[in-house]
Amino acid sequence: MAEPLSTYEQVILRIPYITSASVYQDANGAIRIQLLSDGTKSPRHVIREVVSLLRNYGFEDIDEDAVTVVQIQAEDELERAGSRLTIAGFSVGHSSLGIVAQCRLGRGGQIYEGNGQGATIPMAVAMATVDAVNKAMAQLEQLAFNGIEQARVGGVDVMVVTIADPGEEMLAGCGVLRDTVEDTVIRATLDAVNRRILLYSGQKI
């Protein structure tokens, strides 16, 4: 790879649905790529297109495993359809077992309250949000919290949440860190599951 890393960032940003790109070397000297994209294409599609594009520009050593994609849906997409859950409130406290959190989600005039407990505030809030989502969906097989991490992509701090659904598919959502960590975690969790909620409710998406 003879070109400077910034050159490859500029190449990637030619793809219209990618809003931010960071190409860097990790502590072991391996090339890593972090991308921020809208929700118009699946993460797998994004990765394949980026790798193909870079290889056409002479970046032969790039591997799909080196690419990380964070997707943010547009506000109008998140707000369309009345069945989507919205944030109605949250609270965080401490117990002898760690952090405890409560999340309240609203939909159609009803409030669904979930509880979570974890080693950190983000983890507890994410668990509480998933619990509230499960109560709202009232499914026999429920979603399960998988993990949460804060990342910095193209100079933007985002919170990424992963959730396992009953079909063993992994869902991922993110939220830009604007206000409180708690609010961002809830938004990231809803970003992961709101589309799945529409599927369960039988609405077209």
UniProtKB/TrEMBL annotation:
Protein's UniProt name: Uncharacterized protein
UniProt organism field: Sulfobacillus thermotolerans
